[in-house]
Automatic annotation (TrEMBL):
Active site, per annotation: D515 (proton acceptor)
Family membership noted in the UniProt record: Belongs to the methyltransferase superfamily. Belongs to the spermidine/spermine synthase family.
Ranges where the PABS domain occurs: 428-613
Record flagged with keyword Nucleotide-binding: no
Keywords in alphabetical order: Methyltransferase, Multifunctional enzyme, Polyamine biosynthesis, Transferase
One GO-annotated biological process of the protein: methylation
Organism: Tinamus guttatus (White-throated tinamou)
Protein name from the UniProt record: eEF1A lysine and N-terminal methyltransferase
Skewed-composition ranges (Basic residues): 387-397
Gene Ontology MF term list: methyltransferase activity
UniProt-annotated stretches for the region Disordered: 382-403
InterPro entries xrefs: Lys/N-term_MeTrsfase_sf, Methyltransf_25, PABS, SAM-dependent_MTases_sf
Signal peptide positions on this chain: none
CDD domains linked: AdoMet_MTases
Amino acid sequence: PPTQVLVVGCGNSELSEQMYDAGLCEDIVNIDVSEAVVRQMQERSASQRPRMSYLQMDALHMDFPEALFQVVLDKGTLDAILADEEEATLAKADRMFAEISRVLQVGGRYLCVSLAQAHVLKKAVEFFSQEGWVVRVHQVSSSGDKQQFVLPIFVYVMTKFKKVPGSAAQILEICPEDQDKPTRVESTERLLEAVRDRQHYALLRSQLSKASSVEQLSLDLCSSESGSPRYTLHVVDSPSMKLSRDNHFAIFIIPQGRETEWLFGTEEGRRQLAASAGFRRLVAVALHREQHYEGMAGIQAELSGKVMELAPPGLPAGQQVPFLSVGGDIGVRTVQHRNTSPLSGEYVVEDVKGDDKCYFRRLIFLSNRNVVQSEARLLAPAPLPGQKKRRRDRKKPCPTEPPSAIDKSYLCCEHHKAMVAGLCLLESADPLPGAPLSVLVVGLGGGSLPLFLHDYFSQAHVVVVEIDPSMLEVATRWFGFSQGNRMQVHVSDGLDYVANLAAEASAQYDAVMFDVDSKDLTVGMSCPPPAFVEKPFLQKVKTILKPEGVFVLNLVCRDAQLKESVLATLREIFPLLYARRIDGEVNEILFCQPSPQRPRQPTELLALARALEGALRQPGRPWDSSYVLADMLQAVKIL
């Protein structure tokens, strides 16, 4: 039998006429509350479309018998009715939905064309899903020069099923315009979020297509299969760059594992990247660790259509947009271990290839995935006994499988190098690396800092306090950490451990080092947790420190007011306070001494640092040429 279609709130739209003339359906009944509109449309179609009718009728109170229609079509009527969220307005929507449900056959569909304002979509989805209907939202158009609206247009497809008593199961789906198959979502909130993401993207596209320069912005492109982020796109404009035909637009693929580096992981770094690349608009693309990529060619094929939606205005038609990377390589990332800690949340241990072809092992907390928590360099495999490396081997590409041995002599983190350099403040008659030394380190991570102190200060006794037992397991299994006579780890809260030591009222440590992160990302200070820099606790730190000792604090604080408050508190407790800002990072290393000595001038600090470095450079012991401890103290300020 022919499909019976009801169009509610038809107005003077040409939609019904176009469907009739295209042969899609002819048995179309159109209703509208306006007598004038109905008369106009009847006159326009009477002779040409004899099987299509127009009736004056209110969609909230229809005169049709039950289950008459197979399709109810709504083009903007629901949007017009739900102009606000007042109680009376919501009641009108409920009446219209109830009438649509009454006149629609089981298996029939309610098709609603809408701009999908959040309250409109939520009302429709909640009503029909609770009635046991299948709800699918299709995105049918997006913004662009040829579109009438900046926001995309959606069609809600509500399929009527008999309601099963006691069943709470909901079938909710979304089908974006760039996907052939719908994606199932678990809740109304997630469906609303998915629609909102596409609306925001449409506004963004509109903005980028009209403005040659915008503030740096970032967005995620998600996998159509899993729904998880697959690419993160950073759009960077260089408005001061002189424009030519060939430098409008380019795409830069950030090698896997290097997205945390300053050049790629910060706004300032990406601005520098765009300037050096020489393009007015650069889209820097980060690849996610949970995803698999088929090389540069595969990424280019996958992204070409989508990134062109972000092109600047004035891009010449047909111009080839280059895909750039470091050496044409997408990098290497191997996830070695993944787990969840009750204290630190989900984390991964991964091996990545650096820009100098060396491999590095990294610990990353996925709650803050753009920050490397701990890092260690991996040693290249040694040749077998009697085997000589042939000259041509140097030209062979690096293996895709990284080495596994940890280079314990190398400190990857610049702030760790500064913390070690600060030990030169412990000036003594004996060469410091060979002198008895007691060090307390709060915060283990991968263990690189305490390992270095243990190996290079031969008489040092290092005590490490780590609150998370999972981190001790990670450091031991994946970062070459081990305990011994001169290295002990206490799994405890650093606050409690220091408080208990202070209660004994014994000054026992030459150095106390805090390198502990905060789990509370809402605070403007990510290292250390605020409780570690409160005055009563800092008094306890001073108590356990020898009079000539040094307290070294890794401070990561983006809140200027909070930072000044921390420094003021430190100055109250420690008469001598030095600060070393780590270039290109938020980290600032603070060196605090409890005795009111004369502040050492910059030249003195450099001399002490050079002496320490010279003592550490012992024959037969590995030492990387990048270690210049004097450099770490060259920009120290006396606070």
